[in-house]
Amino acid sequence: MTQSGTPRAGSGLDAALVPTFTAEPGAMPSARLPEHELDPEVAHQLVHDELMLDGNSRLNLATFVTTWMEPHAAALMASCADKNMIDKDEYPRTAELEQRCVRMLADLWHAPDPTTAPGASTAGSSEACMLAGLALKRRWVARGGTGRPNIVMGGNVQVCWDKFANYFEVEPRLVPMSGDRFHLDAASALEHVDENTIGVVAILGSTFDGSYEPVAEICAALDRLAADAGPDVPVHVDGASGAMVAPFLDPELGWDFRLPRVASINTSGHKYGLVYPGLGWVVFRDPDALPEELVYRVNYLGSELATFTLNFSRPGAPVAAQYYQFLRLGRDGYTRVQRHCREVATRLADRIADLGPFELLTRGDELPVLAVRLRPGITHYSVFDVSAGLREHGWQVPAYTFPADRTDLAVLRVVVRNGFTHSLAEALLADLGTVVRRLDRQKESIRTAEEDSSFAHTGR
After folding, report:
1. pLDDT tens digits along 374-401
2. Burial 394-407 (b: 16+ CB within 10 A, else e)
3. Domain assignments of the chain as residue spans, ordered by start
4. Which CATH architecture group holds 71-329?
5. What is the model's pTM?
6. 338-456 maps to CATH 3.90.1150.160
7. Using CA atoms, how far apart are residues 8 and 1, in angstroms rounded to an integer?
């Protein structure tokens, strides 16, 4: 028996006869491993109940990460959860699926020769970005770079790029936002480039507002710089989201390996690749874009293994699920899914604009992401109040300020993912209207109270 009087395993009582919650420990352990085991059904129920306090992932409009997959895909992931991605000799078909995915992505992004373009799966886009950044740095050294290396990027980059610069001793040249320019453009990039620049990072889909950075214009400006005897600076495209949207919805957009200056591209399989976390991909233009000294060839469990990752052991399940999605959907299927997301986003954006208090920064016609701010003159509540009000209805809609030099700008952002339907968008819109009306009534109540107080003080 436990101190609380409930039976524990090995007490001689049949666990099946013990009501589930009466077997709960006196207190859930939080700092020390418990002394005794629990019945698996009890342990499962207790952990399950704690997780009920999390938000509903399907209503989390803050995350870009996939929150719905077809049951077949989820079952496939479960069946592969015990496979270690690094054991390529023991799981050769999983390794083959990874290479098929790399070749498919290289082809999708118009690599000169998709069959020889090097690439790898990663734990996510953060690892993929760091691998691409390392390749840029080593290529700069090979070109004769001897000063302090720097990398040029907009102030809207994801924090993984700050980490890369810090961890690998590269000066981050962050181009701040200015006025209504919310991301990097060609002119501002060029102002920060010099002979020590290892590369320029262009984002295909800013996390702040969903907009595409003008990759082709940035590349053209760097082409002119190199032609005028300036430094020859490569470009990495951080396509964490957009690299799995633009090929299907914006096929004529110039952003990928069709631009000779693009050396590498990353994406998140667990975002618009439509796979549960965590999965990223990095693909290089050709073997010359990935310095050979960064590729490790080790003898592991009986065979030589070429590896270019920061992690070692990693589950093979997300890779299997990615190949499933490629096989299941094909180009037509991905086009339908991404088009539906964009249609939901643009329709929702227009309806939100019609509510009155909001002004659109983006409307979801690039990434299916919309960002809105309050119209000038609305001062009795903020986007943070709106976000808090929506949370009361179960929605998780982030409110945040933009980076330097636009920290004065506060917005709400809605990310539309596969599984967020027109019906759910209508429900969100209805709840948003309810929140706005309540906030307006609060303003009227405060005004009335102030008038009553003024009347009492004047004695009228």
Report:
1. 999 999 999 999 999 999 999 999 999 9
2. ebebbbbebbeebe
3. 1-54, 71-329, 338-456
4. 3-Layer(aba) Sandwich (3.40)
5. 0.90
6. yes
7. 6
